[in-house]
Amino acid sequence: MQGNTFLNRLYRIYRYTGKILIPPAALGLVLFFSLTAFAAANPSANPSADSGVEWKGRHLEPPEHFKLRNSVAAEQLQELGSTPQEHSKDFIQWEHQDGQRAWFYTDYHAAYPLPVESFIQVLKDAENEDKVFPNMTYTSDISPDPDPDEPAYQEVKISFKIFGIGADYHYLVYRIPTWYPDGSFSVHWALVDSVDNKYADLYGSWYVKEFEKEGQKHTYVRNYVETEMIGPPPLLKTIRNLFAERTVRKFFESLYEAAEEQQRS
């Protein structure tokens, strides 16, 4: 999946600048592998999900694609600790026909000495994410018949401000909880509507998998978030370079604390 990041970047540069940075003779081969990898990395919406939901006079439909990341090799699991490590990242900013755009993603992972079920119980709760994660000021499951074990439409309000620089964001996503045959779990989401018109795209996932380390149950945790912003705030790249890792670590710490509470209850 990681190889597809390079192809996505080439595509975005071409899409918004018209420049092809590879030999024309190789373009067909690159496009073939790009489309193949994209299809594998971005499964379609759950076919069993409902056909939509009404929200404040608007009819919302499930998104067509999702982007998620899963486990790493077994030997790497053993090396991970509770401090989140960066797996990969990227950032591009350009002049769109409608103004500035910024596309970026973060991909972090860690391992914690708790069984996976404790994390699953926290991650599948779309209604109460604002009680778990920092920066989230409001979350609500707006599905007609909310069920944490089923796909959900979620309303989110989130605030990112550093030294007064930043903004508040209001958007809707469609979330799908998924249990896998090996006992691992993911909740992945994609943008349905940017209420304040600040996001062009938003994808993400939490993935958790139980494994044994030194005779004790541990859980591998991975978080991937990909964003395309409309009219990004000034100095966004600098701010991300300085504070993104700290912000992500707080999210991981908050998830671990909530999982610990689940384990005790």
Overview of this protein structure:
This protein has 265 residues and is of the alpha+beta class. It is 29% helix and 39% strand. It has five helices and ten strands. It has helices at residues 3-17, 24-41, 74-79, 116-123, 236-264, and strands spanning 53-55, 58-60, 85-96, 99-112, 136-141, 152-162, 165-179, 185-194, 199-213, 216-230. The strands form two sheets. It has an eight-stranded antiparallel sheet with strand order 3-4-10-9-8-7-6-5, sandwiched between helices. Strands 1-2 form a two-stranded antiparallel sheet. Strand 8 and strand 9 form a beta hairpin. Helix 1 crosses helix 2 (24-41) and helix 4 (116-123) packs across helix 5. The protein is globular. 27% of the residues are buried. The model is unreliable at 1-7 and 13-49 (pLDDT under 50).
